[in-house]
Structure prediction request, 203 residues.
Amino acid sequence: MSQRADLTQIIGGPIRESAFDQLSRFATWLETEGVAAGAIGPSEDVWNRHILDSLAFATAWDTAPANLTDIGTGAGLPGLVLAIIWPSTAVELVDRSGRRTRLLRRISRMLELDNLRILQTDVDHIDLALDAMVMRAVFPPPRAVAFAADHLSSGGRAVVALSRSQPPDPSIVDVASAAGLDARIEVVEMLDPPAWLLIMDQT
Prediction:
């Protein structure tokens, strides 16, 4: 299956030509400058491991949220990818590393993403109520649940990537419920291996 077909299958519809071009350029940047800077490891399948995995987060929303915060974004995954496919969403990438945030500002300028804001801070210093957030490989699931419970606004949604190496422990839903969140686990089967997402809503 082609890269464009993979994208279409995950997002459930056609992708804009400009967005496909930006995703392709971002993937190339990750494979070159991103690897050289240590943002990702060498010899990784960037398209499947990072681009498509990031797009899986989009399946948690029926319509693009007005704003989105990527907690502990690292190399801009998944937030930068979501900013590309959701040009009307104001996306904020949060990371404590100055080196990583400088890299993100560079690639943001290269891709001309005017809906992207990059913030260098420790996530523990965030004291705002967030309407929508994503977390990928930043916290163990119980800590991600606690962070979401503390930082989601009323009606807000947090989406956390769970391990793709094996089905997740369903008890994490009970942990989220105990924290006052309406939670469920969903699987994105279009990916190989499938992506498991913990989706949590603040009621």
